[in-house]
Write a structure and sequence with these properties.
The chain has about 160 residues and is mainly α. About 75% of the residues lie in helices and about 0% in strands.
Length: about 160
Amino acid sequence: MKFFKFEKEKIKEFLINLTHESLDSPSRAASAVAVGIFFGISPFWGFQLFLALIAASFLKLNRIIAGVSTNISVPPFIPFIVYSSVKLGDIVLSKILHLDMFIKSNGIMKYLSDSILKYVTGSFLLASICALFSWILSYFLAFILMMKKKDRMNV
């Protein structure tokens, strides 16, 4: 039992050190969160974590923060993400889908191609907007954490 407790504390300390290594710069921590949020909402279903880790490595950001941030697309949020993406795509593309297209012989394919275009366009727009807001929010949180860390070191 004591062995498992020791290992659990060691793992916790390891993860804290990994996440705090980027807190020396709030902008880098915020950028890692924004990369994770962007890829978490983007339409690369199934590859979001992989792509976020590649982007974080390429940009020399904290991979753990970026990887954890991709988990915004958990199953309870997926309907909201997809609906918001399609609506944003509809606004951007200024098209309105009509359900009477199902009656025509090629209507289903036209409807699906329009819907996919709206979804992809909207999801990249939604991902960009959410990444921007998450960068702003996480920048201020990381800045506050950095200031508290400096205050503790000075005391």
